[in-house]
């Protein structure tokens, strides 16, 4: 992943920057134009945060084999293909589709571009196509369950990823970012993709999925584990994995992996108090030591260094 941060003080500079995406723009309001767009990009996922001062019109075609999501800050006015989009609506663009968006005089929001095949893998097969998704969310302005709550989580997570403090070359971090964004998108759009006759897995199936997952996690530690790897080990889809963990353990697979990792690190700190913390955290794929320390404190009521002092 690579972080870029561009600032444009004229509409011409902004147009030059978006031409690679087969897009064009027009300034609609008089006065000063300012645009800042931070991006973190990999082949499978592109995350962006855009701030614009000056009413603008964007139009063109999404060129690559990605779904492109726009999530404005809550309360921001936004028009997509002539429709007023509210906080509970989803804005998603398909590749090779003509789009027209109109930003208000002040716009703040994130953009997410994710490879189609990857998102489909997280979604599983629900028998609906992009056309269904587009029609039911944009043109019919479907009100999505939990849309505002999930968008709030997406905004917070993407903003944190783009703050410049992470090691963007770390492969574990890249997979963790992809997992988190994809799972939040699944939670957001799953009601649209899911067929009406789709029923949740049985209780015995959920128990089997959880037990296979826990066995795989124990056998694989301390190596980082992705959600897709858990699905493969448990012979199930992401959706079934989520159902199983929420039913049996009352938490998501992601939440369990975080808790498990914290406990494993605590065991090692207690067993080898002289060991340095930073190399240990890297073994578990942790690159943000400050956030780790806060999570550790919330769970155990003490910081890692305090645990080491106690062990000594």
From TrEMBL:
SUPFAM superfamilies in the cross-refs? Homeodomain-like
Gene3D superfamilies named in the record: Homeodomain-like
Q: Which domain of life is it from?
A: Bacteria
Q: Which GO terms describe its molecular function?
A: DNA-binding transcription factor activity; sequence-specific DNA binding
All residue ranges annotated as the HTH araC/xylS-type domain in the record:
211-310
Keywords attached to this entry? DNA-binding, Transcription, Transcription regulation
* Protein name per the record: HTH araC/xylS-type domain-containing protein
Species: Saccharobesus litoralis
